[in-house]
Design a protein that fits this description.
The structure is a single chain. The protein has six helices and five strands. By secondary structure, it is α+β, with helices and mostly antiparallel strands. The strands form two sheets. The protein has a three-stranded antiparallel sheet with strand order 1-2-3, with no helix packed on it. A two-stranded antiparallel sheet has the order 4-5.
Length: 171
């Protein structure tokens, strides 16, 4: 779950480092990767280069090679992580979430890149405002949303998103 840490100077941060380490170990075990072996380091959780390869649209062969391979399990776990403390992986996670019913070799590569990114950024945390600088009486909530309304031409599916922010009016 979520771990909350408060430093001596009143700074608060949330993290899920043990959860990420368990998820990485599960991924490596499923694919027969040595737990001590580090995945390739990526500076971003998703890149179009991983998606644009000659065999990108071929069905994944990992289902045949690894009977316990279940991308839905990994994507669901990543969605939980994204919602709790890692908004930096939201785009990549949602990209993979849209593909669980038609998983291809490209999605295998994107998932591996995302896990490589997570392994090398496991210590990123969600920083929260100091307690003494935040007052519920002076804060307000605002949100932003966007949608592309049938932006996927082949299926007429829409993509939408939203962000909610809490702001202290005193600062």
């Amino acid at each position: 779950g979520i771990n909350r840490v408060e430093t001596d100077d009143g700074q608060i941060y949330d993290h899920m480092i043990p959860y990420i380490q368990t998820l990485l170990a599960d991924y490596k075990q499923t694919l027969g990767i040595d737990p001590q072996q580090t995945l390739r380091k990526y500076s971003v959780p998703f890149s179009k280069e991983a998606a644009n390869t000659p065999d990108a649209l071929n069905p994944s062969d990992l289902f045949e090679r690894f009977p316990n391979y279940d991308p839905l399990h990994f994507v669901a776990s990543l969605l939980y992580l994204t919602r709790c403390v890692r908004p930096d992986i939201a785009y990549a996670t949602h990209f993979l979430g849209r593909a669980v019913s038609r998983w291809t070799a490209m999605h295998d590569r994107c998932l591996r890149q995302l896990f490589g990114y997570l392994e090398h950024t496991v210590n990123l945390v969600l920083l929260l405002p100091k307690r003494n600088s935040f007052s519920i009486e002076t804060c307000f909530l605002f949100s932003r949303s966007d949608a592309d309304h049938a932006g996927e031409l082949s299926t007429s599916k829409s993509t939408s998103g939203y962000c909610c922010f809490i702001r202290d009016a005193a600062n």
